[in-house]
Amino acid sequence: MTDRVCVGAIAGAFGVRGEVRLKSFCAEAADIAAYGPLTTEDGGRSFDVTLTRPVASGFAARLTGVMTKEAADGLRGQRLFAPRGALPSLPDDEFYHADLLGLSARDTGGAELGKIAAVLNHGAGDILELRGPALKGSVLVPFTRAIVPTVDLASGRVIIDPPEGLFD
User: Fold this and answer.
1) Beta strands 79-83; 4-14: pairing state
2) pLDDT tens string 21-58
3) Which of 26, 48, 143, 160 could bridge to 64 as Cys pair (CB 3.0-4.6 Å)?
């Protein structure tokens, strides 16, 4: 587990007065402003976030130290991270995506299938992207309790009961 979790991304400038368009990855989108100063992926910059209004696909927001449209545009694509300690604890059957990345995926018989390379969500639920030497490219696995009955963060693995033909 990492000590920081990606909670959002800057989509570019909003207006001409230094506001940014902010996309939240939080379950409650507005909570992105409640997790304390957010840092860039490299840790080089830190911002306090003030949401100003909802906009299409996110929020308009003010970030400390960002005063011009040019400065806001320069941050386009930056992912923002919160300290793990600032985030709420999750119930036993919920996970931060960052905690799933890199876990070993095994079938119900114990054979290694690959590792989780990404957690995707295109609106219909989470999907695990598996990659590994035995796979011909990536395999997308629906992240449902029926198909992924076990997530064991302590031992760094998930158990997958794949539908027939998924790994053929």
Assistant:
1) antiparallel
2) 999 988 889 999 999 899 999 999 999 999 999 998 89
3) 48
Global pTM reads 0.76
At residue 2, the pLDDT reads 67
pLDDT recorded at residue 123: 75
The CATH 2.40.30.60 domain(s) of the chain lie at: 4-86
- Phi–psi pair at 43, nearest 5 degrees: 75, 5
The Cα 49–Cα 51 span in angstroms is: 6
CA-based R_g, the chain, Å: 18
Which parts of the chain register pLDDT below 70? Answer: 1-2
Strand partners, 63: 49
Q: In this structure, which CATH number among 3.40.50.300, 1.10.3720.10, 3.40.50.1970, 2.30.30.240 belongs to the domain 97-160?
A: 2.30.30.240
The CATH H-level superfamily of 4-86 is: RimM (2.40.30.60)
Burial 119-141 (b: 16+ CB within 10 A, else e): beeeeeebebbbeeeeeeeebeb
What are the structure tokens assigned to 30, written together? 């507005």
Which residues on adjacent β-strands are paired with residue 14? 19
